[in-house]
């Protein structure tokens, strides 16, 4: 196990807990510790090891006990000092054979430590398997797809494969709305924003680009005039009702989104969560906002359908990320 795999296990643990970043922060506060949403974003948004004290707080906040938290911390520390974990074996295989007729020599402290690390890694690996199985059950699509529907490209883990998509607000599936370019309805500015509008001849084309972090994507707009831009939470704010607009792709956390399968109202339903805040994208006016041109905004997660989006694959083979004439996205 390396640092990236360990952080991946932390992300899986957070999904298993079902808690938002704010809820985890509240759990940590109740434990007498500090774990702000911004710290969680930093922990889970990179492939380097978090500081050791944060691991125990995070694991406890996810609902596990102190013994389990200690094991996670121990594995983190062993990775930090560059320990090479051998092939995992059963606990029985880790104990030397007993020989009642032979005097036992004192245990070598280094050998003992390596055996303890193996056991801790084995425990962590076993727990990770439990998380993986639970996640597969939670995210397994239910029901049959409509006959003739385009098959949704999915990875074995249940994550979406990158590609061209129509993103439809789930609370008004009969309105024929998709997320595309619009303007503020109050005319406060005249800049391009993400809004719900008619799917017919939707502009720009939307490309879901996978990052190196599983389940985290950039939402790239390919505009016929402006080129390529990434949907970006305004000024990296972590406040409710912050609008979302295209900007030059830089790979920043407020341009990356974790897609969480909801299975509601269908297997194509996803929550879209900015990685810098842990909040949810939704329609600015909530469930009642069914108007053409309603803005997309970052808001506190409620579980309501105005914060769920249907990811519909489209055929856009004539375009691809970084096409000539557009702004090159960050790689």
Automatic annotation (TrEMBL):
Domain Ricin B lectin: 215-298
Originating species: Micromonospora tulbaghiae
Membrane-crossing residue ranges in chain numbering: 119-139
Keywords on record: Membrane, Transmembrane, Transmembrane helix
Keyword Membrane: yes
Protein name per the record: Ricin B lectin domain-containing protein
Region (Disordered): 86-112
Domain of life the protein comes from: Bacteria
Polar residues bias (residue ranges): 99-111
InterPro entries: Ricin_B-like_lectins, Ricin_B_lectin
Pfam families: RicinB_lectin_2
């Amino acid at each position: 196990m390396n640092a990236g795999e360990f952080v991946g296990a932390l992300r899986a643990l957070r999904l298993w807990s079902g808690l938002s970043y704010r809820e985890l922060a509240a759990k940590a506060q109740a434990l007498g510790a500090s774990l702000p949403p911004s710290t969680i974003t930093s922990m889970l948004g990179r492939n380097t090891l978090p500081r050791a004290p944060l691991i125990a707080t995070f694991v406890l906040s996810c609902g596990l006990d102190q013994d389990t938290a200690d094991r996670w911390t121990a594995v983190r520390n062993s990775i930090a000092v560059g320990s090479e974990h051998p092939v995992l074996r059963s606990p029985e295989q880790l104990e030397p054979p007993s020989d009642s007729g032979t005097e036992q020599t004192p245990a070598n402290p280094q050998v003992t430590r390596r055996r303890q690390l193996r056991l801790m890694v084995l425990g962590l690996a076993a727990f990770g398997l439990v998380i993986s199985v639970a996640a597969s059950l939670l995210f397994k699509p239910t029901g049959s797809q409509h006959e003739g529907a385009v098959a949704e490209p999915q990875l074995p883990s249940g994550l979406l494969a990158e590609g061209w998509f129509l993103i439809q607000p789930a609370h008004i599936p009969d309105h024929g709305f998709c997320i595309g370019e619009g303007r503020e309805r109050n005319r406060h500015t005249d800049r391009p924003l993400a809004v719900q509008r008619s799917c017919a001849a939707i502009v720009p084309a939307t490309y879901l680009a996978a990052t190196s972090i599983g389940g985290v994507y950039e939402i790239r707009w390919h505009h016929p005039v402006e080129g390529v831009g990434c949907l970006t939470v305004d000024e990296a704010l972590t406040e409710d009702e912050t609008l979302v607009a295209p900007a030059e792709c830089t790979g920043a956390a407020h341009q990356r989104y974790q897609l969480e399968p909801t299975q509601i109202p269908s297997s194509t339903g996803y929550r879209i969560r900015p990685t810098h805040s842990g909040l949810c994208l939704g329609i600015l006016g909530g469930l009642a906002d069914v108007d053409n041109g309603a803005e997309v905004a970052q808001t506190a997660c409620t579980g309501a359908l105005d914060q769920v989006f249907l990811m519909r694959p489209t055929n856009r083979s004539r375009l691809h990320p970084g096409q000539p004439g557009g702004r090159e996205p960050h790689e």
